[in-house]
Amino acid sequence: MRRQAGGWRRARGVVGAAVVAGALVASGEQVAGQEESRGDADRTAWKSADPGYTLSFPRDHAAHPGHRIEWWYYTGNLHASGGRRFGYQLTFFRFGVDLQPVNPSRWAVRDLYMAHFAVTDVENRGHHVAERLNRAGIGWAGASTETLHVWNDGWSVTLEEGDSPVHRLTATSDDGGLALDLRLDPVGPPVLHGVNGFSQKGAEVGNASHYYSLTRLRTTGRLVVDGEVADVRGLSWMDHEFGTSFLEPAQAGWDWFSIQLEDGTDLMVYVMRRTDGARDPRSSGTLVSRAGAAHLRVDDYRLTPGRRWTSPSSGAAYPVTWRIEIPPHGLDLEVTAAVDAQELETGRSTGVTYWEGAIDVRGTRDGVPVAGSGYLEMTGYAGAPMSTVLR
Amino acid sequence: MTAGRPSPSPAARVSPAPAGLFRTFIARNLRQQPLRSAATVASLAVGVAVVVAIQLSNASSVRGFSTALDALAGRTSLELTVPGVGLDETRLANLGWLREYGLVSPVIDADVLLEIATDGAAPALEAVRLLGVDILRDRPFRDYPLVDGDAPRLVTTQGFLDLLTDPRAVILTRPFTLRHGLAVGDPVTLVAGERTVSLRVTGILGDEGPARVLDGNFALMDIAAAQWAVGRLGRVDRVDVRLADGVDVARAEREMAARVPPGILVRRPSSRGAEVERMLRAFQFNLTALSLIALLVGLFLVYNTVSVSVITRRSEIGLLRTLGVARRAVVGLFLGEAAALAVLGCALGAPLGWLLAHGAVRLTSSTVSQFWIASSATVPPLEPRMVGLAFAVGLPLALVAAAAPALEAARLTPLAAVRRDDDLDARARLSRRSVAGPLALFAAGAWLAAQGPVGGLPVFGMLAALAVVLGAGMAMPAVLFCFRRWCGAAMARWLRVEGRLAHANLGSAIPRLSISVAALAVSLAMMTAIAIMVGSFRETVVYWVGQTLQADLFVSTARGSPAAERGGISAATEAVIAGHPAVEAIDGFMGMDVPYGGSTITVGAGRFATRLERGGLLFKDPADGTAAMSSAIGRDRVVVSEAFSLKYDAGAGDEVQLPTPAGPTPFEVAAVYFDYSSDRGLVVMDAGTFERHFGPERPSGLTLYLASGADPQTVRDELNAALGPERRLFITTNAALRAAVLRVFDATFAITYALEVIAVGVSLFGMAATLLTLVLERRREIAMLRLVGADSGQLRRLIVVEAGVLGALTQAVGLVVGLALSLILIYVINVQSFGWTIQFHLPVGFLAQATVAIVAAAALAGLYPARLAARFELGDAGGIS
Amino acid sequence: MVVLEARDLRKRYRRGDTEVTALDGLSLTSEAGTFTAVVGPSGCGKSTLLHLCGAMDRPSAGEVRLDGRSLADLDDDALTRLRRDRIGFVFQFFNLLPTLTVAENIALPLLLGGREPSAAMARAAAWAERVGVSHRLDHAPPQLSGGEAQRTAIARAVVHEPALLIADEPTGNLDSGNGARILDLLREVNRRSGAALLLATHDATVAAAADRTVEMHDGRIVRVESRSGAREPAPAPELAAADAKGSAP
Prior knowledge:
The structure holds three protein chains of three kinds.
Chain A: H1 2-13, H2 18-37, H3 41-44, E1 69-80, E2 85-96, E3 111-121, E4 126-135, E5 141-143, E6 149-152, E7 155-160, E8 166-172, E9 179-186, E10 191-192, E11 198-200, E12 208-225, E13 228-243, E14 251-261, E15 266-274, E16 285-289, E17 292-296, E18 302-305, E19 308-310, E20 317-319, E21 321-326, E22 331-337, E23 343-345, E24 353-365, E25 368-378, H4 386-389
Antiparallel strand pairs in A: 1-2, 1-13, 2-3, 3-4, 5-6, 6-7, 7-8, 8-9, 9-12, 10-12, 11-12, 12-13, 14-15, 14-25, 15-16, 16-17, 18-21, 19-20, 21-22, 22-24, 23-24, 24-25
Chain B: H1 10-13, H2 18-32, H3 34-73, E1 78-81, E2 87-88, E3 102-116, E4 124-133, H4 135-138, E5 147-148, E6 151-152, H5 158-165, E7 169-173, H6 174-180, E8 187-192, E9 195-205, E10 218-222, H7 223-230, E11 235-236, E12 238-243, H8 249-259, E13 265-267, H9 269-312, H10 314-322, H11 327-371, H12 384-411, H13 415-418, H14 433-449, H15 459-486, H16 488-508, H17 510-548, E14 553-557, H18 571-578, E15 583-596, E16 599-606, H19 608-614, E17 619-621, H20 625-632, E18 637-641, H21 642-647, E19 655-660, E20 663-673, E21 682-686, H22 687-694, E22 701-706, H23 712-723, E23 729-733, H24 734-748, H25 750-777, H26 779-787, H27 792-834, H28 844-861, H29 863-870
Parallel strand pairs in B: 4-10, 7-9, 16-21, 18-20
Antiparallel strand pairs in B: 1-12, 1-13, 2-11, 3-4, 3-8, 3-12, 5-6, 7-10, 8-9, 14-22, 14-23, 15-16, 15-22, 17-20, 18-21, 19-20
Helix pairs in contact in B: 2-11, 3-9, 3-11, 3-12, 3-25, 9-11, 9-12, 9-17, 9-25, 11-12, 14-15, 15-16, 15-17, 15-27, 16-27, 17-24, 17-25, 17-27, 25-29, 27-28, 27-29
Chain C: E1 2-15, E2 18-31, E3 35-39, H1 46-53, E4 61-66, E5 69-70, H2 76-86, E6 87-91, H3 102-112, H4 117-131, H5 146-158, E7 164-168, H6 176-193, E8 196-200, H7 204-208, E9 212-217, E10 220-226, H8 236-247
Parallel strand pairs in C: 3-8, 3-9, 6-7, 7-8
Antiparallel strand pairs in C: 1-2, 1-4, 4-5, 9-10
Helix pairs in contact in C: 3-4, 3-5, 4-5, 5-6
């Protein structure tokens, strides 16, 4: 659920033009509705998430063009050999616009492809962003239906299959000052969220998605930040989610965490804040330990905001320290943003402003000190509630 | 004033200080001769105005294009294309490395028509430039400011969303929508070739960026929708590249040119502007030269005015010299007079030129649009640069024109003041100079006419024309002398006492008259020459049309552009046409613009077999063009137009390198044929050859040959019915097409005639001014005539006869010199500028009419001076009292 | 036979800001074949008198009659025709048209009068013969000597056999020899043609040759003197009347 919401947020987040895609999805819905009313369901009906569907790998790493919305999401905390620390995020989105365009042109828009690339330079307190928005056209963007291969105008993620398959991530900003070339080696199998990867998002049937994560990928490679090249290594997190409709109204925003602890425990947890201030009952999480993955229900955990950082530009006050308590699993964690200023403003054009960035985690598990790092994303603190932005 | 008595003239009272002298001696005199001063200023103003107007109009046609070019190019640094056919879009996949240089955006760029439904009336049809882009990639290249009413809207709006999702979405500009009362949501119909596509306005662009193209005749669509609408699936017209900051354009251009596969051209957008300028250069050069004629006439009048001023004030000048005014100061005085006239003339000429430019632009833009580029018919604002041009052209030339009489004034000795010379040198002799000078100039003209072009421009040809014109001007004294010598008896016989007196007066006023007569003669000669040239050209075209337009019906698509549009008539349409029982054979033609030798040529394809079977090509070289043409079928051989052959020096048997998608490819010239449809140069190959090199293309026009006995009109109606209203095809009968060709032809030369009429008008005006001067100077004699019994009717007739005879005389000279000039125009200037062989033809009827009109106009020009003369007081017969 | 009859002529005109009275109640008659010399200082009104009598100008008041016909009710063109048919002019500065030949100059009144050109030219040639410029027929006036020019002018003045011959200082621009010859010519023409000659002059010798001398001062006749050799002295009463008026306080 948070992934879906987060996906929306990120879709919006792709600076400026992103809103195009968001609204496109909306208009796509419109078109679909109209077409259906004309009884032309086959051509335009996007596939809903199916609770009976069984995810299988590597097949389901590839694209699912029958579904309207899909993304591949990578974040991670990396260290340069010299000790410098970086956070990165590279996300590829596919938004279906027109299942079967009538226009035979190769440039006819079936899907829009977006990609979002951000790097946090902890030492220099820097936060760098680049983005891509393209149609498939003559193959300048796309997602393979055969294997994990998604690309967007020079940026790509590719699964190099073999005995130990690795994910290759490449992205370079237009001016070349920001780049990434990483090799991600998964530790452990995909973690299926919800029920066997079927994640019910809303009250309505069909408002759901297929959702899994690779919560721990050993990462090596090279970063270019401000034109400086750094050899890096560290841990990454990968999400892949696809579905057709799962937007739920009355959501003011959310606070979402992905955490990798040094003891090998991985945690995904979020709270959806409703417009009336209440915690959405469908907020949830997954705790992955050596014993396996445990689903966290909304009552299993408590997220408490601490110190707030006020953005000088947007004026929004984001909690940059948090306390996460998960009593059933004896976890009590203090979360601190690696850098306060990891806000992204997409300007007046969209009105969407949010915070996403690397975090440090410190605390105890059953009284034993633990530490780790991860990514935090917070939306709905500035401007209109997400639900109205998203319509 | 008389000698011996102290003169009351201003000259006697002034101090020799130059400024004061000028004020009293020149300025006051100019004021006291308001008519002559005004006439000179006015004619100079008109001359300057014509030059300015033509420059403005030339600027506007290129400006329209380059503004469009700039607006369309936006921040594009380099563009990639395959000339003529555009890029096969699958080739783009191999051009991924372009991203190393910067941003990349593929573009569909087409000239189309938009049809807007109107209440009841026929739908409005406008040519617009259609740009199809991937808006997701294109925003860094071009600005698309969507507006909502007057307020700019944010770009991330429904308008752009619809563009991506709705293949019928089009965004139009604010000026365009205002003009047609369109709002968001309204339907418009796009016409491209024979296709029509229903579109919906989904957004309105503010007047910025590409929206400024052609005064808002711009439409923005998604690249996919545009491809589909104009029938270019699988192709893009070009790929625009915006280089990353700091990348050197020249270096990138070099590197990219080396890396792209053969056939793909890498160039800067501005290079297209340079090609167009080169293409238009000959046309504009000729217009400029023509406009200088009017100025020349104005300068003749400056010369005339200053001359008269010097001649009539000899004794005053002598007095000035007696009073110690230096020769140099005298020169300064008369140059000052010219300068004063010129400053006024230029100051009036610049704004007048701007006004005239509106007419000129209207006349030229249709021609430019017809033959070369879509141009906007707006006159650029009158910039200081143009005012500067007016002065830069008018002032120095006026001073040069005044130099000779000013120097003559300086040569006068103080004795001139005390000698009572008769104002009129009644015994003008034929000086050796007035015979040798013209002869030398005519010889120079003949030599110059034999020289080749300079950079594709007939510079020597123009100089030859100038030499002939100047020679004609210089020959006027001799002509007048001959007139005086041999025509007296005839005039006395035919025109009685008025004729006798007119002959005597004209003969005696040779030095004074020859200048204004020369000015008029020069204008008339130019008019004659142009009439002969255009008449010959027209006859040639009529003959050519008669020979080559053999088909019975012509099918064409609506074209929004002067440039040959690709494709157009679908195979299905052709099948419908071929299915008509009366249609025996179909020829198809398509042409495309291709850069060649720094300019643009048209590469076309036709069905040679049909053409050969049906006939109708006029070959220049070799004589048996048909055999050569049939040898071209199935081979890499082409036939080229005469203009191409002359411009690029390619004759039968030569090889030309044409840019094809596979790179430059050699073609052998099989034959050269006559073509008067365009001066840009045509290279035509058989449709099969074309397809082998450029890929399959549909023709943009078909010519139909009907079974004998079939009525073209009936077949046309039946075809129209069979094709239905959705296909926008124009079927024209042979007769209608011929008429249309000649209509275009006549429209093309409208500006030529307009310029000439102005020049003739100015000259007539100048002649009237001269006549007036003569009348005023002859005040005493006229009074004398009245005294001895000439009544007012006789005096009026006398002056009118003088004017009419002058007109006849100048027209006679004009006809002779014009004939010579027309030969230069036809055989030198035209061939060198446009590459057309024109058969000489004398438009006798027109010339006869013109002669009658000129003599009548000249006689009319004498009416005012005649009325004035009849009102002179008898007391003016000086010496009575 | 009375050719010219001027009655109580007055002529005023403006020169600058002042009104000048050129003729102030002057009367004069002249008979066919008589020679009247008008003398007086510069500005006395001689030329004005000649202009009015020669139908070149209109009086402010009074009347001019030629051949018994009043000029007052004639329009400009009628006056022109009258001059062309009935009056001849000779001026100090000859006033020939420089663009015409001597013959054409002489024939001009006939040509303007619509006479057949060859007849006109023949007549002009005959007159040229009589005045002694026949060797100059095809020459242009600027090529003539002063005497020749004035002879030509005289020929032109009489070629159409006018009733009245007006001469304004005809010898003023000539040396004495030429002047004498011109005067003789004028007298001869005057006698033979029977035209009344009205001649203005400064020159006493010229005046002495006249049948009658009219002396003017300030626009009036102050004295009339008839020569003994005169055929018909001018009738005194009118002159006396003029004198009486002129001398009125």
